[in-house]
């Protein structure tokens, strides 16, 4: 009887896979998604809208929102296999690809996924340093006038952010990050709303809506095409969170079924982010027209009230502290699982130690986690210092990530999961959808590469 009772207690505290009970809810899931989606990308949307113009800009934002939801919808059904309700759990994107598509696809997916996650970390270092510098410049302009030089470098701020992330990276995993995601999501709402409000105020001050149907004019057709393609890449970076859908879904409790909660959370989060994206992108363009800065809150189209600019940039910094971890934790988990399997008897890899500080709960750490995560943060910081180009880096990462990880793999896994035959109506529709998104990726990649090379050479 004692043995049976202890087994029941253990079962009550564990899920069907033997892991501790997952406690994530619809709202914690929405917070994770918003933290992942509303990040560095929102700040480039006014510039992207300016390149595309008043029709193509808003339409592109809406199209990417729909594409992102379709991708999340397809992926959420791949969390369990072979059945999406009662099947075996796939804890990560790569697990789902391996189960549904096989080993070759898994290697290709893994390379793209972790490259994209790593690149996002680099982009967040650049963006955070830009916002830190903007706070200093804003105060300088307020004291000395808008024509003052007020030039400051990025390197110090990148190093400072790297030091903060070395500490934050010791958070064990996603399951210990709910509080961080909630704080980061609140920060993203705050600075998005400030950007929106400043744009509205500027439009009222101007007394008219700036901009045109065709967007910012260029000296020749080739330059216009490069900037248009780069704008598509920037929008592609701003939306998709497909590479961490399953990691987020793995935090959800059940019942109800995890895929149902994930679909509801995706719908809510994408609706909220699209509203803010349209407000920031459209009102930013309406406020500045052809002079729209590449980064809405750090490009100094707005100078006053300087304290509000400072607050917005401080919120960006706080948000990206959490956002960096959201995108880094899957890399940390993969690397640590690999080392654990490769070196099962290594104390360096497997021995954990507890640190107890006054008034704080005990904190577990090990040498592998400390060394690998520290080296990872240092490497992203160094690369950001070498390529500190905001719009170009975002566009390049968005283009690389968009089709293969957001469209191709989810569509292919959905075919396998739902046993959809070739040349059926659903197969033709999804194949056409995938090909159209592939063309967008190619265009965005071409434009962003051209912009990055031009910026480096200039």
Descriptive account of the structure:
The chain has 458 residues and is mainly α. The chain has one domain (22-457): Up-down Bundle (Amino acid/polyamine transporter I). The chain is built from 15 helices and four strands. The strands form two sheets. Strands 1-2 form a two-stranded antiparallel sheet. A two-stranded antiparallel sheet has the order 3-4. The N and C termini lie far apart (77 Å). Residues 1-10 have low confidence and may be disordered.
Write a concise keyword list for the protein shown above.
458 residues; mainly alpha; 15 helices; disordered N terminus; single chain; two-stranded antiparallel ribbon; Amino acid/polyamine transporter I
């Amino acid at each position: 009887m004692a043995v049976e009772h202890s087994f029941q207690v253990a079962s009550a505290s564990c899920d069907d896979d033997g892991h501790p009970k997952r406690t994530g809810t619809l709202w914690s899931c929405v917070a994770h998604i918003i933290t992942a989606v509303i990040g560095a990308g929102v700040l480039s949307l006014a510039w992207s809208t300016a390149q595309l113009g008043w029709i193509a800009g808003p339409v592109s934002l809406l199209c990417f929102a729909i594409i992102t939801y379709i991708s999340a919808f397809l992926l959420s059904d791949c969390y369990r296999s072979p059945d999406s309700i009662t099947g075996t759990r796939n804890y990560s994107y790569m697990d789902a690809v391996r189960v549904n598509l096989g080993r070759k696809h898994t290697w290709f997916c893994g390379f793209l996924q972790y490259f994209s996650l790593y690149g996002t970390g680099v982009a967040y270092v650049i963006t955070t340093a830009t916002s830190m510098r903007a706070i200093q410049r804003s105060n300088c302009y307020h004291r000395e006038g808008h024509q003052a030089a007020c030039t400051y470098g990025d390197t110090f701020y990148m190093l400072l952010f790297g030091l903060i992330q070395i500490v934050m990276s010791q958070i064990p995993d996603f399951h210990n990050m709910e509080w961080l995601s909630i704080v980061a999501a609140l920060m993203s709402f705050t600075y998005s709303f400030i950007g929106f409000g400043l744009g509205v105020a500027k439009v009222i001050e101007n007394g008219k809506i700036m901009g045109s149907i065709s967007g910012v004019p260029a000296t020749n057709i080739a330059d216009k095409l490069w900037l248009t393609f780069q704008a598509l890449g920037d929008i592609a970076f701003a939306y998709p969170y497909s590479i961490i859908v399953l990691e987020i879904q793995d935090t959800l409790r059940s019942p109800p079924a995890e895929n149902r909660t994930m679909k509801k959370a995706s719908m809510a989060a994408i609706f909220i982010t699209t509203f803010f994206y349209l407000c920031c992108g459209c009102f930013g363009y309406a406020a500045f027209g052809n002079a729209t800065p590449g980064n809405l809150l750090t490009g100094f189209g707005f100078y006053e009230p300087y304290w509000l600019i400072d607050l917005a940039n401080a919120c960006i910094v706080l948000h990206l502290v959490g956002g960096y971890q959201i995108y880094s934790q899957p890399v940390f988990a993969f690397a640590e699982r690999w080392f654990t399997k490769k070196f099962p008897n290594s104390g360096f890899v497997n021995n954990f130690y507890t640190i107890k500080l006054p008034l704080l709960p005990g904190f577990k750490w090990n040498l592998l986690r400390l060394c690998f995560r520290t080296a990872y943060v240092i490497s992203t910081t160094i690369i950001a210092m070498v390529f500190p180009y905001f719009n170009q880096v975002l566009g390049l990462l968005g283009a690389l990530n968009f089709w293969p990880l957001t469209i191709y793999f989810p569509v292919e896994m959905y075919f396998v999961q739902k046993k959809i035959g070739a040349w059926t109506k659903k197969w033709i529709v999804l194949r056409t959808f995938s090909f159209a998104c592939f063309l967008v990726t190619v265009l965005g990649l071409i434009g962003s590469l051209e912009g990055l090379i031009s910026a480096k050479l200039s």
